[in-house]
Structure formats: structure tokens, C-alpha cells
Amino acid sequence: MGALLYQTLRESIVDAIRSKIFNHEIKPGQRIVELELAKEFHTSRGPIREALRQLENEGIIVYTRNVGCSVKELSFQDSYEVYLLRTNYEVISVRFLQGKLPEESMQHLQEILERMKNLTAEEFDQVFECDNEFHEELVKMCGMPRIQKAWKEQYYGNLFAGYDLVQDKEAVAKRQYASHKVIYDTCVAGDCEAICKAIKDHYWRTIAGMMREQNVDAPHLERGWDCAF
User: What predicted TM-score, i.e. pTM, was given to this entire model?
Assistant: First the structure.
């Protein structure tokens, strides 16, 4: 098998397993059996093992010695940490540029906003894809690959949090445009601290919503959020 074909096969398997997890065909805590997946995808266990290793790096599955791989059971604390890290990386990028975003970044943000306008609950995968694309631009624009790489390590943690913890998907889909336009408008104004505050408030609203949905009573988390920046 050629190197390119092998790579394409592995990526296809990664996408297929990820989709099964997000659609709860493979449930949180459920063990993933390599041999069963190899039979399903008509391949050897090599590409399956590599795909599972990538999903482990993304934080979607966990490996336990003498047990194997299973789907990670995402807790509220996991989500809190994902959003806390994402916020910090984006704020670093904005402050590095002193709030003056490149023209191409502004154009890209505007294009993403246009796609957000008419999203529905049936397009919930696109809701989080657009969200990640918008926020990734806020990190990419500073031109520091290590920060971008660290941010991307939280990428599927964000997707997983959205699929697993957000109950009212229709409401989330509808408010995507307005909530991100607040950030965009501060970027247009070019006030560094206002942009940072908009990003921080944006993520905190998500965390606060999850706390209400799950009846999480933890005032120290909000105090920690305020002290982290």
C-alpha cells in the first residue's frame, strides 16, 4: 500500500470513529475493540491502531494498560479546563498584536460570521466547526505556531463538550452569530483590552450555561476564571 493511500485510509478511519463517538454509536466509557473495527472497515489492525492513537491525542479516547481504549467520559471540569486554556491562548495572540488584527484575519472572521447566520440544530456539527474556525483565526493571526498547536489540542475537547454537555442545541445554533459578532465588533474597533474581555466573557457564558444545566454550584470556578487573566 502506498504511503499516500495508507495515510488517506487512516484519516478516513479517524473520521468514521470520531463520527460514531459524537453520534453516541460508541458511548462514553465504552471499550473500543480493534479487531471489531478492523472487520468493519475491512482493513488490518495497523491503521485502526494509528487512528486510535490520534484520537487519544485529541482527548476523545483514553488508553488503559491491560484494558485497551475506551471513549473518554467528559466531565464538566474537563470542559472548564478546555475553555480556560482556549481563552488564554486567544488573549495572548490578541495582546501580542496589541489588538490590531491583520486585514486578512478580519475578512476571514467576517466570512465565518456570514455562515453562522442561518445555522440550525440539524446542522449542529457545523455550529461547532464554525465556532472553532472563528476562534482558531484569533490564534493563527499572531503567527506563533506553538501557541496555535497548543490551542488545537483543545479543538476536539470543545466539539466533544458541545455534543455531550449542551442540551438545547437549537438555542445554541441560533445564538452563534450574535455571540461571535460581539467579538468581531470589538476587533473592528481595535481596542486590545476590549477584545480580550469580549473573548473572556464569550467563553464564560458557555461555562455558566453548562453550570446551570447541570446544577453545578462552584463559585470558586468563577473566581478562578477572573484571576486567570
Answer: 0.76
